[in-house]
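Example record for the data management plan.
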Amino acid sequence: MTNLRSAPRPSLPARLFERFAGLVREAGKFGTIGAISFVVDTVGFNLLIGHINSLVAGAVSMTVAATVAFIGNRFWTWRDRARTDLRREYALYFLFNLGGLLIALTCLWVSHYGLGLTSRLADNLSKNGIGLVLGTAFRFWSYRQIVFRKAAVAPVGENAG
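Corresponding structural encoding:
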């Protein structure tokens, strides 16, 4: 005789965790790599600032930090993704990094010039608060969907036989 009673259904939080566990893991790794890159950028900038022009120091430290982030995301955050041409991935990575930077600068511009909020606190909140959050969300989405995309899955039955 068959038992018609089904197993108890998991709770909503358990079902949500099961559904989004991979995304949460990726976001955690992405955030860890971002924090490491932030430290590399900040330390590098401060080491260089007394020796070379501040804009050059900033460009060098940001480039090194972005390269560290690329390596970390490529070989840890999305290591399970199919490899494509490294030049393609690196070029797209920097293109979307630029997009994230433009988002942060747009938030600063809107706050400072559009809304007239010109204090140092307002500038930091708009650029390093709102701009950082929006730019990071954009980068996470673009890296996950475009730069380090999943390999295409062949339809069932294709290549059989």
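Summary line stored alongside the record: The chain has a mean pLDDT of 83.
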